[in-house]
Write a structure and sequence with these properties.
Length: about 700
């Protein structure tokens, strides 16, 4: 059966809110029937309405409880109004609980929708050029109105006559007037203002049911006085306004969530103390100097403070027994001692706070699971010794950190990142048997991996670009799946690593590697990086690795790729800058190979690709000795070929590449003809600048024949 011309979605009471947040276009919102059953939301374009009546699918669904949202787009769509009216008459005879939503876009009048508006619970007006909202006057069923980027002078007064209106959103409607009239809506629960000229919200004091208030880019808003006393207000979101104070929120006893973003004049949280239900606070890009007022918020669970340069202390948090998550980023914080009494804390992120030098305050927080102190000035993590539940530590580029002392004995610790730190050893981790992931790359002082031998669960080790003298300790990590020892100069072979039977990903780039012969036993290997291994001339050892999907051998001394012939799962091959490589022999028959980068090689032929039926992308730019594309004809999935600055004399062999979309042959001086391209149906772009076929005097494209 053919699919219906609309989308049917079963939603719960939160679906509208979630989908709107993620921009997925769910227009139905939070709707429930009298018996609390969740409705189906049907979204349909007006031009598809005619198909609905005859569809078997539609006939089967008529008895369901539906919320139907119809989009009318432009003046031409007005012709579809009678069709919708007829459909509504049909289904009302079967089920009188169906509800209607209208999404009206790019029209100049609402009068043609008069009858439909009277039946609607939801009206969305987008990019409409209106002079009046009179058509909405007195609509008893109307619960939600959203006005977005509507032009022309119009008043919101007609909305006051809609007794059941619960939600109003006004965004970028610069001609809208009488916004204060909304204060007469006794059932109003949700209001959104974006880029409006409001000076205050005093009018909202007449909305006792208000639960959610959001204002965005209203620079002249200077007071929240109208919110004080609203006993049901649960959520406040204010962005890009000039507010200096939020003191009026002290009269909102039900407040649970507060978001303040880019309110440059806001320096304190005075007004929040005493709000016993406040659970979540986000303050970003404000002039916040203190969070002391949060001390009186016993229900607080989550705090996010970002880009508040004047905030130097977390005083005010100590003793908040329900606080679970704290994130402080790019602030002037000098210490985190204020967290000392937050015994429920589970997650802490203190990022880019250069003045934080210790973790004093964390010891004794027995529920703390995750700590992120990336790019801070921390010198010691000794205080983590008192955090027995710790599972994850991220100390990325804490350059002043010289020791992992404090981690030993943390039995639940699974992940440690100390990349770019000043640590000299990792011996302290020997007492952390649960560690699965360890990142210590770019630790210039780290010369030994002693301590790994006891990590029986270690699956991922990144220790590239360190000062390692030996990797013998790695051999004890039998569970290891991913290994990065890039820039380990003492590495000349992989002898010994073959006992790590579970390895899936190995990076040994920029090492002294001469041979990978012993990799023949790496049966689980999926990805290999041997880039910049100048002494490596052969891939002997890889043939027969049935799971190998990715090989990166850029800038290596490779002379041949024949040993890849048995790697039947290979998908990606990077052999760029392998100046000793003249042939791709060995690749033919690799039916999974999708991408080959052979940039700037000595290639004389690409015939080795002849059997690579899955190939999609080929880069052979700067291959000066390559004159022909023989071997590519018949590669039905090839979409992109980059052959700029090559020695190409002909592109005739592309004639069978029916999926080809893009070809770059700029600076191919010896190429004088595009013969072979004329019958390629998908070819969109051919770049010919400064090639032998360039007739455009500096143009970058040639129209496809």
């Amino acid at each position: 059966m053919e699919s219906p011309p609309l989308r049917l979605t079963s939603i719960n009471s939160n679906a509208g809110e979630d989908d709107e947040r993620h921009g997925e276009g769910m227009l139905g919102g939070a709707i429930t029937s009298d018996d609390s059953a969740s409705p189906h939301v049907v979204e349909v374009r007006s031009e598809d309405l005619a198909q609905m009546g005859d569809d078997q699918w539609w006939k089967e669904k008529q008895r369901d409880f539906l919320h139907i949202v119809v989009t009318f787009n432009g003046t031409k769509s007005l012709d579809d109004i009678p069709t919708l009216e007829n459909i509504l008459r049909q289904i009302s005879d079967i089920h009188n609980k169906h509800t209607l939503g209208l999404n009206i876009r790019y029209v100049k009048s609402l009068q043609p929708f008069g009858a439909l508006i009277q039946l609607s619970e939801e009206i969305i007006l987008d990019n409409c050029d209106l002079t009046a909202l009179g058509a909405l006057e007195g609509v008893e069923q109307l619960k939600k109105v959203k006005l977005s980027t509507c032009y022309g002078p119009f008043s919101l007064v007609p909305l006051v006559t809609c007794p059941n209106l619960e939600s109003v959103s006004v965004s970028r409607c610069y001609g809208a007037t009488a916004l204060g009239a909304l204060g007469s809506l006794r059932n109003l629960k949700d209001v959104v203002f974006q880029e409006c000229g409001i000076l205050d919200v005093d009018f909202l004091k007449g909305c006792p049911q208000l639960e959610s208030f959001s204002v965005n880019y209203c620079p002249h808003l200077s007071s929240l006085k109208g919110l004080s006393g609203l006993g049901k207000l649960r959520s406040v979101d204010i962005r890009f306004c000039e507010l200096k104070s939020i003191g009026d929120l002290s009269g909102c006893p039900a407040l649970e969530s507060l978001h303040m973003v880019c309110c440059k004049n806001l320096s304190s949280l005075k007004g929040l103390s005493g709000l016993g239900k406040l659970k979540s606070v986000e303050i970003s890009s404000c002039e916040l100097r203190s969070i002391d007022d949060l001390a009186g918020c016993p229900a607080l669970e989550s705090l996010h403070v970002g880009c508040c340069k004047n905030l130097s202390s977390l005083k005010g948090l100590s003793g908040l027994l329900k606080l679970k998550s704290v994130e402080i980023v790019l602030s002037g914080l000098k210490g985190i001692e204020g967290l000392s009494g937050c015994f429920a804390l589970e997650t802490l992120k203190v990022g880019c706070c250069k003045n934080v030098s210790s973790l004093k305050g964390l010891s004794g927080l027995r529920k703390l699971k995750s700590v992120d102190i990336s790019l801070c000035g921390v010198r010691s993590i000794d205080d983590l010794a008192g955090c027995p539940a710790l599972e994850s530590l991220n100390a990325y580029y804490c350059k002043n950190l010289s020791s992992l002392k404090g981690l030993s004995g943390l039995w639940k610790l699974k992940s440690v990142c100390a990349c770019g730190t000043g640590i000299k050893r990792i011996k302290e981790l020997s007492g952390c048997p649960a560690v699965e992931s360890l990142h210590v790359g770019h630790c210039k002082n780290l010369s030994s991996l002693k301590g790994l031998s006891g990590l029986r669960n270690l699956k991922c080790l990144h220790a590239g670009f360190c000062a390692l003298k030996s990797i013998d300790d790695v051999l004890e990590c039998s569970a290891l799946e991913s290994l990065d020892i890039s820039n380990y100069n003492n590495l000349s072979s992989v002898e010994g690593l073959s006992q790590l039977k579970k390895l899936k990903s190995v990076s040994m780039s920029s090492t002294g590697l001469k041979s990978i012969h012993d990799m023949a036993g790496f049966a689980s290997l999926e990805s290999l990086d041997v880039g910049c291994c100048k002494n490596l001339s052969s891939l002997k050892g890889l043939s027969g690795l049935a799971k190998l999907r990715i090989v990166d051998a850029r800038h290596s001394g490779l002379q041949s790729v024949e040993d890849l012939s048995g790697c039947l799962a290979l998908e990606t091959l990077n052999i760029a800058y392998c100046k000793n490589l003249a042939s791709l022999k060995g690749l033919s028959g690799l039916e999974q190979l999708r991408t080959v980068n052979a940039y700037q090689n000595r290639l004389q032929s690409v015939e080795g690709l002849s059997g690579c039926l899955a190939l999609e992308t080929l880069n052979i730019a700067y291959c000066k000795k390559l004159t022909s594309l023989k071997g590519l004809s018949g590669l039905a999935k090839l979409r992109t070929v980059d052959a700029r600055h090559s020695g190409l004399q002909s592109v005739e062999d592309l004639s069978g590449c029916l999926a080809l979309e893009s070809l770059n042959i700029t600076h191919c001086k010896n190429l004088t003809s595009l013969e072979g391209l004329s019958n390629l149906p998908n070819l969109r772009t051919v770049r010919t600048k400064k090639s032998g076929v360039d007739n455009s005097k500096g143009g970058t494209r040639c129209a496809v024949l």
